[in-house]
């Protein structure tokens, strides 16, 4: 039995989103067979109350003002960049860098609709291609978890900040994932299979503070938020809001030998049962750090 079928019924995720590849994740968005669904995931997570609270925390620390020059690394659909562009006008500028041309295509059209100006271009967080000390503010949200070496991206962000420039980095830590099903060992095995499947650390969130300390950032502050899911209807919804579809992920984990098939089936059986009986409880932690480049 494929790991993505349980209880004799195919769950919704099979039909609609099996094509999504958790191995590519957000590292290689443009190579996903169903890019539109990946982009829709960004709008879903932007609506999470936990993400909204983290963005408010960030905003209070970055304090954008007219004339500021701002860089958003891994800007995705550009919603935060668009807000920042309005904040730094007149006289400021916002640059958004992302690895995905599909993300940037949507971002360009949204900022045009919003009547603001952002300079979006494709690039790599690990090698920004921007001059030294060019920005007053640098931010990155939920992007470092998709990099093989998050520390390189932090060093790059510090390099392009002016002395005294403000930095804020936010990321999820998938090792904090909790799921209330009877088999805690299966949950632990699933959690540990996430970085093995992706090939990226996936636990970037809890490493942010020390990465910033190592990069010489001063005045550091840190905070955390937890996102909680309490429902998922596996027969009518492809996935809990904002998450890559779990049944195909389990299937891909088993295929990649990151998770054994029996554990994968047990995990999925119990999670789908929780969904069908109104007993879902899942959570994941996100962390943010803010500080200044010395000088
Ligand atoms: C989970 S999304 C977050 C997007 C946006 N920051 C937000 O919070 O809505 C991760 C983003 O990182 C981008 N990304 C992944 N690897 C990257 C890299 N090496 N350099 C720049 N961007 C990257 C993806 O294309 C995607 O837009």
UniProtKB/TrEMBL annotation:
<protein>
    <submittedName>
        <fullName>Methyltransferase domain-containing protein</fullName>
    </submittedName>
</protein>
<keyword id="KW-0489">Methyltransferase</keyword>
<feature type="domain" description="Methyltransferase type 11">
    <location>
        <begin position="71"/>
        <end position="169"/>
    </location>
</feature>
<dbReference type="InterPro" id="IPR029063">
    <property type="entry name" value="SAM-dependent_MTases_sf"/>
</dbReference>
<keyword id="KW-0808">Transferase</keyword>
<dbReference type="InterPro" id="IPR013216">
    <property type="entry name" value="Methyltransf_11"/>
</dbReference>
<dbReference type="GO" id="GO:0008757">
    <property type="term" value="F:S-adenosylmethionine-dependent methyltransferase activity"/>
</dbReference>
<dbReference type="Pfam" id="PF08241">
    <property type="entry name" value="Methyltransf_11"/>
</dbReference>
<dbReference type="InterPro" id="IPR050508">
    <property type="entry name" value="Methyltransf_Superfamily"/>
</dbReference>
<dbReference type="GO" id="GO:0032259">
    <property type="term" value="P:methylation"/>
</dbReference>
């Amino acid at each position: 039995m494929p790991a993505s079928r349980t209880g004799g019924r195919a769950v919704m995720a099979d039909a609609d989103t099996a094509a999504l590849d958790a191995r590519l994740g957000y590292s290689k968005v443009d190579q996903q067979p169903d890019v539109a669904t990946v982009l829709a995931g960004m709008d879903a997570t932007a609506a999470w109350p936990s993400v909204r609270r983290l963005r408010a925390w960030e905003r209070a620390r970055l304090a954008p003002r007219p004339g500021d020059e701002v860089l958003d690394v891994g800007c995705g659909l550009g919603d935060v960049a668009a807000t920042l562009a309005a904040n730094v006008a007149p006289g400021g500028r916002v640059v958004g860098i992302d690895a995905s041309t599909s993300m940037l295509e949507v971002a360009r059209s949204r900022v045009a609709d919003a009547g603001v100006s952002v300079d979006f271009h494709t690039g790599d967080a690990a090698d920004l291609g921007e001059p030294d000390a060019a920005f007053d503010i640098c931010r990155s949200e939920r992007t470092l978890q998709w990099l093989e070496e998050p520390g390189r991206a932090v060093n790059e962000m510090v390099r392009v900040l002016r002395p005294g420039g403000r930095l804020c980095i936010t990321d999820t830590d998938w090792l904090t994932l909790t799921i209330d099903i009877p088999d805690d060992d299966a949950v632990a095995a699933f959690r540990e299979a996430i970085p093995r499947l992706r090939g990226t650390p996936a636990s970037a969130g809890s490493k942010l503070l020390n990465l910033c300390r190592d990069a010489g950032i001063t005045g550091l502050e840190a905070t955390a938020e937890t996102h909680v899911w309490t429902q998922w209807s596996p027969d009518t919804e492809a996935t809990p809001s904002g998450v890559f579809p779990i049944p195909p992920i389990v299937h891909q984990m088993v295929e990649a030998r990151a998770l054994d098939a029996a554990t994968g089936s047990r995990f999925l059986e119990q999670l789908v049962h929780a969904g069908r009986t109104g007993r879902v409880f899942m959570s994941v932690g996100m962390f943010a750090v803010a500080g200044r480049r010395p000088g």
